[in-house]
Structure to design on (203 residues):
């Protein structure tokens, strides 16, 4: 129907604008973009249509665009799909440029999924290939900031736990005097010296 065609045209335009904005992302800009479900759906449709044709280059390009969209998605399941696609295709990638870009996208995917260690490993490999790559440098700094922040929070939690544990031990020790047949020395002293003036030690 005409409405469906219009919707597809609108989505294609949206995808076009999105990839125009990220087309320069490998060479400039500091922010890691997000993409929505419409972009992912549009890229999936592109891959399906490219699969019907004979151009391997077009198929590869569409798959790369879909991988990009998936790891930049706000949906965790999309990010995991993107990681799986990139991991599966990385071993068969001969082009150093494509390999670098796929490793970068994998680093983004692992970063978004919270695996900062794996993300940093991948982005460091990217920087071995291209030390001046601004996006990889920015991503590495972002990852390290998260690791530092999480480490500080972790130390704080551990310190609090130790404090609570120590407090619990003190409470338990105080409780022992009430829960055993032995009397606290101060109480025993009071019994021995009912007239407190006779006590030689403080009560």
């Amino acid at each position: 129907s005409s409405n469906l065609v219009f919707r597809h045209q609108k989505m294609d335009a949206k995808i076009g604008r999105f990839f125009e904005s990220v087309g320069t992302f490998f060479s400039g800009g500091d922010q890691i973009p997000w993409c929505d479900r419409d972009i992912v759906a549009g890229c999936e449709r592109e891959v399906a249509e490219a699969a019907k044709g004979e151009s391997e280059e077009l198929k590869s390009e569409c798959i790369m665009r879909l991988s990009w969209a998936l790891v930049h998605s706000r949906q965790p399941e999309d990010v995991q799909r993107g990681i799986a696609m990139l991991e599966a295709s990385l071993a068969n990638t001969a082009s150093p440029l494509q390999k670098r870009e796929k490793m970068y996208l994998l680093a983004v995917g692992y970063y978004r999924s919270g695996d900062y260690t794996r993300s940093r490993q991948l982005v460091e490999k990217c920087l071995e290939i291209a030390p001046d790559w601004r996006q990889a440098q920015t991503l590495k700094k972002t990852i390290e900031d998260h690791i530092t922040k999480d480490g500080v929070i972790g130390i704080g939690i551990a310190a609090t736990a130790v404090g609570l544990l120590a407090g619990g031990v003190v409470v338990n020790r105080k409780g022992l005097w009430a829960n055993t047949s032995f009397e606290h020395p101060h109480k025993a002293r009071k019994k021995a010296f009912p007239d407190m003036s006779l006590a030689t030690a403080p009560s």
In short: The helical segments are 2-23, 37-52, 56-71, 76-90, 96-112, 116-129, 134-179, 185-192. The chain has eight helices and no strands. Residues 2-158 form a domain with the Serine Threonine Protein Phosphatase 5, Tetratricopeptide repeat fold (CATH 1.25.40.10).
